[in-house]
TrEMBL record:
InterPro entries: Isoprenoid_synthase_dom_sf, Terpene_synth_N_sf, Terpene_synthase-like, Terpene_synthase_metal-bd, Terpenoid_cyclase/PrenylTrfase. It comes from Corchorus olitorius. Pfam families: Terpene_synth_C (PF03936). This is Terpene synthase metal-binding domain-containing protein. Residues 68-244 form the Terpene synthase metal-binding domain. The lineage of its organism: Eukaryota, Viridiplantae, Streptophyta, Embryophyta, Tracheophyta. The keyword Metal-binding applies. GO terms for biological process: terpenoid biosynthetic process. Coiled coil: none annotated. It comes from the Eukaryota. Keywords: Metal-binding.
Length: 298
């Protein structure tokens, strides 16, 4: 790559590190704008249009973020102190979403929402049982529970409810897909990928603080291999899972909005874990990503 021009060399370097198809479009838009504006052959009108588009969407994101930060959290006197905020936020949020769906779609989504949360909480309970019982699951046992406990299925269900607003009648809504979500590859592969990335980036610190075994540790115990070999195996699973998700999206008969939503969420999560533990360690790279995407206009 030494003979390539600086900008082209940087693009090649990024693509070798993370394939373009795996990257989150909105965060990559800024990179392309920065590179394009240094091109001597760039189209000034196109450049300005790209900047306007980026800044407009950024302002929308900030507005939505502000609304999230202004939730009205009243005290619930009958609950323990530590549960009040969580319970009320969840209660208000779910009921508001259910009411909107009933008015806009004529559809009661409460059973689907309940099913998602029950499955999620049940999976966390399984992990808690493993931890307190000192049980080390096999890799298959871990994945069978872990793809749900990572929480992406809940997020996807919420996103799919939003996509439903594009449809005008219950007859064309893919309700069977939502009823059988636990058998759907469109739920499974994004969730499994998130679980794999989370384990690769956070398991070391989580194990140091006494957390339950992750996929890396499960594979080490099951196969009797070192951590490096286990990590390489899990990395291989991420590549295979990406291929299977891409194949499913290319062949699915589900509305394109559902497939696009799952793909965007998967890319977003990949971006979040690219620089390590997004939630537990506030690295400068993560801060730069948030600032450039949400707070710093072009």
């Amino acid at each position: 790559m030494g003979k390539l021009e600086n900008d082209l060399r940087e693009q090649v370097k990024q693509s070798l590190e993370v394939p373009l198809y795996w990257r989150f479009p909105r965060s990559e838009a800024r990179n392309f704008i920065d590179i394009y504006q240094r091109d001597s052959k760039m189209n000034l009108v196109l450049l300005e249009l790209a900047k306007l588009d980026f800044n407009l969407l950024q302002s929308i994101y900030l507005k939505e973020l502000k609304e999230l930060a202004e939730w009205d959290l009243e005290a619930i006197k009958d609950l323990p102190e530590y549960m009040k905020v969580c319970y009320l936020a969840m209660y208000n949020h779910v009921n508001e979403m259910v009411q909107d769906a009933l008015e806009d779609l004529g559809l009661d989504i409460l059973p689907y929402v309940k099913d998602q949360w029950v499955s999620y909480v049940r999976s966390l309970h399984v992990e808690a049982g493993w931890f307190h019982g000192g049980y080390k699951p096999t890799l298959n046992e871990y994945f069978k529970n872990g793809w749900i406990s990572i929480g992406i299925a809940v997020g996807l269900a919420y996103a799919f409810f939003g996509v439903m607003e594009e449809y005008s009648s219950k007859e064309i809504l893919p309700l069977e897909f939502l009823e059988n979500w636990s058998d759907s590859e469109l739920f499974y592969w994004p969730s499994l990928l998130t679980r794999l990335w989370d384990d690769l980036k956070t398991s070391k610190l989580e194990m140091e603080r006494g957390d339950t075994a992750k996929s890396i540790q499960c594979y080490m115990i099951q196969e009797g291999v070192c951590e490096e070999e286990a990590r390489n195996y899990i990395k291989g699973l991420t590549n295979d899972s990406w291929k299977k998700l891409n194949k499913f999206i290319a062949q699915t008969c589900l509305p394109s909005g559902f497939a696009d939503t799952a793909l965007k969420m998967t890319r977003c999560v990949h971006r979040m874990y690219h620089y390590g533990d997004w939630f537990g360690i506030q690295s400068e790279a993560n801060k730069d990503c948030v600032n450039s995407s949400l707070f710093n206009p072009i």
